[in-house]
Amino acid sequence: MIENYITVKEAAEKWELKERAVQKMCTDGRIPGASKFGKSWAIPRESERPKDKRIISGKYKGWRNN
């Protein structure tokens, strides 16, 4: 049973995200099947990375590159 789940740290490395971002996705319910055990999250190994909902278009896109 434990072999079917990964930790937040492992998911962050797999999806190339920060651990805090994965924790937030779990809290928001964006990762199906993620369960909280005490203070830790168990994420199904076969879960795919949720889509990025950040807005990357608009007036301020690339403002640092100017």
CATH fold type of the domain at 1-45: Arc Repressor Mutant, subunit A
CATH class of the domain at 1-45: Mainly Alpha
Termini separation comes to 51 Å
DSSP, total strands: 3
Structural class: alpha+beta
> Which overall shape is indicated by the principal axes computed on the Cα atoms?
elongated
Biggest β-sheet: strands ordered side by side in the sheet: 1-3-2
User: Tally the helices: what do you get?
Assistant: 2
How large is the radius of gyration? 15 Å
The CATH architecture name of the domain at 1-45 reads: Orthogonal Bundle
Q: What's the rounded overall pLDDT mean?
A: 88
Order of helices and strands: EHHEE
Unreliably modeled segments: none
* Largest sheet, strands/sense/barrel: 3 strands, antiparallel
Give a quick summary of the entry.
With 66 residues, the chain is α+β, with helices and mostly antiparallel strands. The protein has helices at residues 8-15, 19-27, and strands spanning 5-6, 35-37, 40-44.
Would you give an account of this structure?
The chain has a domain at 1-45: Winged helix-like DNA-binding domain superfamily/Winged helix DNA-binding domain (Arc Repressor Mutant, subunit A, Orthogonal Bundle). Helix content is 26%, strand content 15%. The protein contains two helices and three strands, in the order βααββ. It has helices at 8-15, 19-27; strands at 5-6, 35-37, 40-44. The chain has a three-stranded antiparallel sheet with strand order 1-3-2. Helix 1 crosses helix 2 (19-27). The chain is elongated. The mean pLDDT is 88.
